[in-house]
Amino acid sequence: MRINKIREKWDADEPVLNGWLTISNGFSAEVMAHQGYDTLTVDLQHGVNDEMNLIAMLQAISTTETVPIIRVPWLEPGIIMKALDMGAYGVICPMINTAEDAKKFVEYTSYAPMGRRSFGPVRALIYGGNDYPDHANDMIVRFAMIETAEALDNLDAILGVEGLDAIYIGPSDLSLSLGCKPTFDEVDPPVAEAIDHILERATAHGLKAGIHNGTTTAARARIGKGFRFVTVSSDARIMAHGSQAIVAEMKDSLKS
């Protein structure tokens, strides 16, 4: 089976740099994949992605060594199993609030006897190899999103669920849940405290911690704290910011 490079980097205690895809297009996914990201996450929860273009995006990513991840819309077995059958090597699941949620997530991403994933890895066999079914349970990376006050209350129970590999913090939703302004980097003090607590408890349970960032400065600082999976911005934001910089520079030069 094709090796999951996320696990290789984590075994070496190296951070994983993740890109974020919100644009539903195979070519834009291919462009992002060729920039050197360790992983790319196709976001099916937010953004404008849809299942119609998902295969084309995964095929585009597969032209490189970049590892494909899918953030599913919700804790729902059908879409989680389909994402894996399409060849995702990691699944990020939002709004994991209880240990029961985490147990269901592990079950949906695992073949029996570990779980109850239905068998039908049509594209996963092509991407992962003919022995995919024998190793998928150990190779797939399962990220539970911790992003609510309820999840904080149940944190140790969630982190103690067998089969969970990592957590992923959504700073904006976590901020909203704690009564603060939604943002990625310059979070309010209660959110900063919660993020540090989640990281500390995840590490204590032997799980890796990931987080969404708006800037490389924030991502580097969080790697320094111990995060081993960092996302910086997204394809749409990168396009907008790059375009804004060009337009601003041109308009300033024309004025002068």
Describe the structure.
The chain has one domain (5-255): TIM Barrel (Alpha-Beta Barrel), CATH 3.20.20.60. Strand 1 (16-21), helix 2 (26-33) and strand 2 (39-43) form a beta-alpha-beta unit. It has helices at residues 5-11, 26-33, 51-61, 77-85, 99-108, 124-128, 132-139, 149-153, 155-159, 171-177, 189-204, 216-225, 235-255, and strands at 16-21, 39-43, 67-71, 90-93, 141-146, 166-169, 208-213, 229-232. The radius of gyration is 18 Å and the shape is globular. Helix 2 runs parallel beside helix 3. The chain has an eight-stranded parallel beta barrel, surrounded by seven helices. It has 256 residues and is an alpha/beta fold. The chain has 13 helices and eight strands. Helix content is 48%, strand content 16%.
What does the secondary structure layout of this molecule look like, with pairings?
Elements: H1 5-11, E1 16-21, H2 26-33, E2 39-43, H3 51-61, E3 67-71, H4 77-85, E4 90-93, H5 99-108, H6 124-128, H7 132-139, E5 141-146, H8 149-153, H9 155-159, E6 166-169, H10 171-177, H11 189-204, E7 208-213, H12 216-225, E8 229-232, H13 235-255
Parallel strand pairs: 1-2, 1-8, 2-3, 3-4, 4-5, 5-6, 6-7, 7-8
Summarize it.
With 256 residues, the protein is of the alpha/beta class. Helix content is 48%, strand content 16%.
Instruction: Count the E strands.
Output: 8
Overall CATH architecture: Alpha-Beta Barrel
Computed structural class: alpha/beta
> Strands of the largest sheet, in order across it?
1-2-3-4-5-6-7-8
- Biggest pleated sheet: 8 strands, parallel, barrel
The gyration radius over C-alpha positions equals 18 Å
N-to-C SSE string, H for helix and E for strand: HEHEHEHEHHHEHHEHHEHEH
| Mean pLDDT reading | 97
How many domains, in number, for the residues?
A: 1
Instruction: Give the helix tally.
Output: 13
Q: What is the top-level CATH class? A: Alpha Beta
**What is the overall silhouette?**
globular
CATH superfamily: Phosphoenolpyruvate-binding domains
- Helical content band: 40-55%
Q: What distance separates the N and C termini? A: 59 Å
Ranges with pLDDT <50 over ≥5 residues?
Answer: none
Strand content: 15-25%
CATH topology: TIM Barrel
